[in-house]
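Much of what follows relies on a compact textual record of a protein's fold. With that in mind, consider the following protein and its fold in token form.
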Amino acid sequence: MNWKSLFLLILTAIGIIVAYRVWGSDFDWSLFYSSLWNIQIGWLVISIVATYLSYVFRAIRWQILLDPVKSIRIRPLISANLVGFSAIFVLGRAGEVVRPLWVARRERAPLTAAVATIVVERFLDTFLIMVFFGWSLLLVKLPAAAGGTVKIMKDTAWVSLIGSIGALIFLFFFRSNSDRIVRYVPLARIASLLKSFSAGLSFLDRGTSLALVMAHSVLVWLAISLSFWFMMLGMNFQFSIPAATLVMVGSAIGSIAQIPGIGGGFQAGYVFCMSTFFSIPAEQAIATSLVAWVASYGPTVVAGSVYMISQGLSLKDLRTAPVAE
């Protein structure tokens, strides 16, 4: 059995379970299977290259965020991102702790400061994904029947956007007043952690650093959007980049609720967008959601696993290595 047959067998098994639970005998299995089989590997390979490129941009952005605390080369940060996101994809949101722990233990960076940079990253990512969502809505003509759904998504996007901007403003305030705030904290341990957290926000003191962080955040999400567009072409959808971005945003929002190692939220967000906004049949939407899930997450997990095996490492090593503070 070649790799493509095995790949299709696994996705078919998952799809059968989902389809049986939801549609029963009304499910068009021929359309489901043809949607799995008729994929263009070349476009998927280009999509994977764009995905890896996004990790390079993430590493450069992280290097800028960490530079005031600890100067770290790009290669270790690329590895840390691959391992960290692999942990998120496999373990769920509990894997978020792996990236800051990795640089704290492997690169001897202060843990709390590393956590601060991850917090900044997440707020920037939320801000940028909402900007990309608004951009895609302006350029994609959606069916009138989807008006109510679009309004709910717009309202949610505005709340997320305002929340992200508010959080970033708070971080600016905290960084500029951290010494004053720490003086009023009675517990020495908490005061020390707050000082270390503030050190992780040192990049905010320099306008050039903040501009570079924002620029690389845009590059990260451009690479992810292009990756999703190439992937859609590989699944024979002749979508524009804004249309593919709209599906990407829906999948990203859905991925907030993930079952470790299985996904679920990603596929649900993908299927919802494809069926609601582009009238794609359920069978085709479900089949391609499985391909999209594997093509989006699989390369990261494979690369992260290969790196750890080649270095003789495991996530258990994070428990025993010393942490710098």
Remarks:
- The longest helix spans residues 147-176.
- The radius of gyration is 21 Å.
- The longest strand covers residues 258-259.
